[in-house]
Amino acid sequence: MGFFTNHKKKSDKDLDIVALASGTMICPDQIKDAVFSQQMMGQTIGFILDSGEIVSPVTGKVEVMFPTGHAFMIRMKDGTGILVHVGINTVELNGKGFKVYVKQGQDVKAGQTVVRLDLKAVKQQGYDTTTMLIVSEPINKTIPFIDFGKVKKGKSIVKKVYV
């Protein structure tokens, strides 16, 4: 084993959280919806999307997948629940402009495509496409996210903590 060998265990990767899309990661108070900006459902961050591909931010099991594609929840192996809500009030579109790629009960890997939305069409309908990632369970868990700013889909957004 060389000096520069990657010592990261596979189990560590299974607990990582990655950017659910390419774009700009924003703090909750920049989200234009009180439920999300005030973090009423748990620790929340937002994403201003550069494209309409939404990937799973974690490895786990899809516990909830709304047929409309506007929201889904994934349970990580350590029990953490991650909720993704695509856009604000987009449930009102009844799935128009959304294509769902996974099913409830399916195992997914971090970075796997879950939903695609037609950004232009959704915006033309007057909807805000800011997408939220909420650490919904356990609510008392705090994730050390990286600094806000530009992110690339599938890249880790958790600060590496050295002990």
Summarize the structure.
This protein is mainly β.
Mind explaining what this structure looks like?
The chain has helices spanning 10-14, 34-37, 119-124; strands at 23-26, 43-49, 53-55, 60-65, 71-76, 81-88, 98-100, 107-108, 113-117, 128-137, 149-151. Helix content is 9%, strand content 35%. The protein has a single domain (15-140), classed as Glucose Permease (Domain IIA) (Distorted Sandwich), CATH 2.70.70.10. The protein has 163 residues and is mainly beta. The radius of gyration is 16 Å and the shape is globular. The protein has an eight-stranded antiparallel sheet with strand order 8-4-5-6-10-2-1-11. Strands 3-9-7 form a three-stranded antiparallel sheet. Residues 33-137 form the PTS EIIA type-1 domain.
Please describe the topology of this protein.
Blueprint: H1 10-14, E1 23-26, H2 34-37, E2 43-49, E3 53-55, E4 60-65, E5 71-76, E6 81-88, E7 98-100, E8 107-108, E9 113-117, H3 119-124, E10 128-137, E11 149-151
Antiparallel strand pairs: 1-2, 1-11, 2-10, 3-9, 4-5, 4-8, 5-6, 6-10, 7-9
GO biological process, one term: phosphoenolpyruvate-dependent sugar phosphotransferase system
Keywords: Kinase, Phosphotransferase system, Sugar transport, Transferase, Transport
Protein name: PTS glucose transporter subunit IIA
